[in-house]
Amino acid sequence: MTTRRDFLSKGALTAAGIGIARSEAYADEQRATQNLTPDRVKQLKPPAKPVIVTRVTGDQTVQEAYRMLLDGQDTLDAVHHVCLGRENDPRDHSVGLGGLPNEDGIVELDSCCMHGPSRRAGSVAGVRNIRNVCLVARKVFEHTSHVMLAGPGAENFAADLGFPRENLLTEDARKMWMLWKEGHSQMDWWGPGMADPAWKDPYADHPTPQPTMDLHGLASTGPGLSPGLSPGAIPRHPTPEWRQLIAMRTRKLTEMAADLGIEPEKRLAAVEQVLWPTTGTVHVSAVNTKGEMSGATTTSGLAWKLAGRIGDSPILGAGSFTDQDVGSAGATGTGEENIKVAGAHTIVELMRQGYSPKDAGMETLRRIVRNYNGEMNKVRYLDMEYYIVRKDGAYAGCSLWSTGATGHPREFVVHDGELRVEKCSALLEGSMTEWPPL
Known about the structure:
By secondary structure, this protein is an alpha+beta fold. It is built from 14 helices and 15 strands.
């Protein structure tokens, strides 16, 4: 099933004439920078052209941000231009206005940013009623000696600086929340986490899709796999029972959507958000021809989360990290797992040691999997994507899984003079199993 966002995003990119494959010349350049010594990293030269990496946005903000860099504007201004496009779009249910709310029906936003040239950073978490939290995060380091503000304090800080208070719960998002409350709320974020010894696989007695899982490199890079799990591809396929379950749930939720007054043309999208809630988040990293870098992440967090839940997006070193000497990285996905490996910081530190952007991202993904000893009955509930750029313009997009819930390849956007979509380098073949489960 193709999501509305997939359709709009790919349509917008096609209309803009974006190529899918990168040039052979640049591919050769990327290969030539795979193995570096730490001393060589210190000597990296800025790229000949600016580079931006982010997710597929479905709008013109990446092109506009690139023009800003060409015009000599600050890298953080350009990065935030992309974030603002998503925060201001009520159709994007992963961030800002229209973001999906917590279990109480309240939208809570998180964001952080790092400005490479000045080595400053700011962060806000659990912010209500303020739309453009990416800019509020920047104001933290511009107007205070703090790095992070949270909750009502962050909201009041933003209001004092002139950010308008507004209701971020759009009517479409409110109806999606009502549909979740009516038909799915027993499947929430309560209960022990997977790291708890008492945790039990909720799908153990359920028919479920089990994608092919290819454990690239896991057998030789650290703690072993779970008993009985050998390296290589493990074929698993969606069962007819699971497909029947999805069809049944879709019919039931569609009927409930009609009872809640959701317009016919919006019912399928609402059902989709209940079954597979948006978890997009936005991270953007950029480097200009001076070698100056910035990175920012912004999100409304997990749909239907417990009130006050904070993921990785506002945490410097997890959701985003920029080091002017090395590179910039950020993440979208299962925030709790990314916090535990300090994902963005780990990637940058690995690049400092000489890892290529791709290898740094893949090694960090392996650490997430190793936290569960390679046990696929747990790893299948996790998700992660990394967006990485090095000081010399080398870049990568890395994902835990090769495809999304809709079956489309995991992709990211890069602009280095040519705007295009590329496939992420994936650690595991297949797609995650959505959590909370059906």
